[in-house]
Amino acid sequence: MLPVNEDSSRWVYRWAMLVTLLTFPLIWLGGLVTTHDAGMAVPDWPGTFGYNLFLYPWSAWLYGPFDLFVEHGHRLLASLVGLLAICLCVVAYRNEKRTWVRNVCFLFLAAIISQGVLGGARVLLDARTAAMIHGCTGPLVFALGSFILMACSSDWRRATQDGSRIPVSRGLLRFSYLLVLMSIVQLFVGAQLRHAQPTWLPPFFTSIVHTHLLMATLITLSIFGICVLVRTDHNRRVMELRLPSNMLLIVVLAQVALGLATWVANYATPWVELTPWLANYTLQGKGFWESMIVTGHQATGSLLIVFSLWMVCRVATRTKKAEKAQPMINDTTIHQEKATELVAVGSTV
Amino acid sequence: MFFDIHHRFPRFLQASLWLFSTALGMVLCGCNSEKIEFRSNQLHAASISMDLTPPDIRQLADRAKGATEQLLGTADLPTWPASVLPPIDMEKVVRSSGPVGRDQSKVERGLFRKHCVQCHGISGDGRGPSAALLAPYPRDFRRGSFKFKSTPIGKKPTHSDIVRTLEQGLPGTAMPAFGTLSDSKEFVDDVDALAHYVRFLAIRGEVERRLLVALSEQEVDESTSLAILTRVANDWLAADSHSVQRPEWVANPSEDGRMESVANGKALFESEWTACVKCHGVDGSGNGTSQDFDDWTKDWTIRAGIDPAHKSEWKSMKKYGALKPVIDRPRNLKLGALRGGTSRGDIYLRLVLGIEGSPMLPVAKKENGNPGLTEEDIRDLVEYVHFLSENTRNISLSQEVQHASSE
Ligand code: HEM
Q1: CB-CB: which of A204, A206, A285 is closest to B176?
Q2: A193 falls in which pLDDT band (50, 70, 90)?
Q3: How far is A233 from chain B (nearest CA, A)?
Q4: Which residue range(s) make up the domain with A43?
Q5: Distances from the Cα of A160 to the Cαs of A155, B73, B373, in angstroms?
Q6: Inter-chain residue contact A279 with B171, CB threshold 8 Å
Q7: Which CATH number applies to B248-291+331-406?
Q8: Global pTM?
Q9: What is the complex's ipTM, to 2 decimals?
């Protein structure tokens, strides 16, 4: 239909893919920073022990203590993601026809920068609250990046441009929105557990644990509900809904398992005498596998947000209202010229 | 318009933009007000003076905390008065205290807050944020009482007793082992520094308790509080001299000889004389008839005239930080998870020394004409406990992973 426009958007898609794929390990590294309480392993910012961030000696970084390795690594990868996000904005500015997608790219860059500034504030003020907020917003930034990816995907284009599509029930849409919201709330609740202030009283912490468990139940049930909904009524014929719902199911099951493992890895179980294995299990303080489980739980939590957002995208682009999308595509023909140029350049390279 | 398509998404995006700005705002205005102080010992104040009103109890606890602070400093900067001989290395204590992080020379500070505070609490009161969810509860150091050590009941543990617990952890509980960390050289130093800090918190807690008692009777001047500190410090200085050597023990090489010993030990275990079965049950699974609370619980319940088995009675202490009283279950010896160590030498120490603060008392030894168990009997008993508990090994996740990958 509009082959040139399609191609121009593909570069945005590729860049968004690159940035998003790198943001996920960044979430892991950030999570490791929290797990190892390494937030202050490097006391200065934006430099590292007086060096410019990029000039800090490799050997001191790689062979130094683990907390320093993780914290400096997190900073390096974050800077890389920041630089790539600038590239994404440039590419989007020149290639993307939809104004709002370009705006989202700029918002993404702004979010990454504020995330960095927040990280810096955490170090300079030595404020654990800042670390907690940084930990909450990190996955939101990741979700924003993957949203760009979704908006530039061929599925999005197909769904919004194809007039003959089967409308999806609004119930499913509401359910998916609710899921995004709940996963975000769950992330915030989880961050309280990971960033508990040493002076909190036990009853407060206990109530947060209970909230986290309650939310986990609600989220799991909602995902079951979504899996059923995509297989009922006319939703059944929209095969594109199957993949995100299946992924959600896999991720939530993994997340619940990781959550239980996280509890054991952090606090053992209160039912010591249940089996000899539990009775004899000795936790390892900051042990490698323990850290991986705990950090994995946190990282999979942000994956859950991303996948539920994916579900929203696939559903929202297929409900009735999405039809308004049609005229907007033509609106952007102004950029077509520029885009044609770029694609020409792109294909010669 | 900023977003002209898909009106629902823009709203989501605006929300996230809003979130970022509030987050940044919150950080800039509020969060360096995270002041971290030792917590006063209200529970002890309440249990020694039940007739006071809640505000008076809090005030008494605060005064004791203030007097302790004069002597031993704050959570960010512990100090030690020059006139008292310190049983601990204050340089290591200071390194373990305060907020987590490295300084420009890469020396790490705040070890306690990094590794321990989540469970043991800022003042070592065993009331860290996660405490209520753990079974058993994390240890409250402030009574100066420790369970797994090489010294008799009533004596302080040695430095290496505490290092042992930090290195090996306590199986089946939330207390981790810190012995197998990857960058080990630094970690050996860290564990050592932490053991000093644990002893500091124990001293601080005990001084605070004694000051509480003193203050509930009269005003306390500086020389009195220094005298209290000196007495507590001397107990800790004397710890090494009370330490009982863990016997080097080679198991009887002949299977028959060993089993004979086990049979003997079994008979002793089941005899009325040792009363082991009263608590540990006939089969050693911990389900004997005698089930009691530990001293940490009795301290604020039975000693204050409160029945720990009735919620209507102990409920009134919740507002001072009391957690639900829980029975100190006699260990299920068949599960293997011995917290004081699984070797015969370790078990020997447990039997001859008992477990301080728990219902488990030392066995009566036959000496100076008193009736009791001979050295030979005790060794047979040890052999039996070892036999009961040997069926399982201590497990850690890394070992499991290694095990799985080597198969
Ligand atoms: C795209 C940019 C970034 C993302 C997505 C991101 C993400 C994260 C995440 C997910 C966490 C873990 C939070 C938790 O476990 O709850 C974290 C922790 C952390 N990040 Fe980042 N981060 C980014 C950039 C930065 C930058 C530029 C810095 C600069 C110093 C930084 C400093 C930190 C620190 C200090 C922590 C540890 C917080 C603590 O002490 O627990 N981050 N980050």
Answers
A1: A285
A2: very high
A3: 24
A4: 8-152
A5: 8, 67, 87
A6: yes
A7: 1.10.760.10
A8: 0.86
A9: 0.87
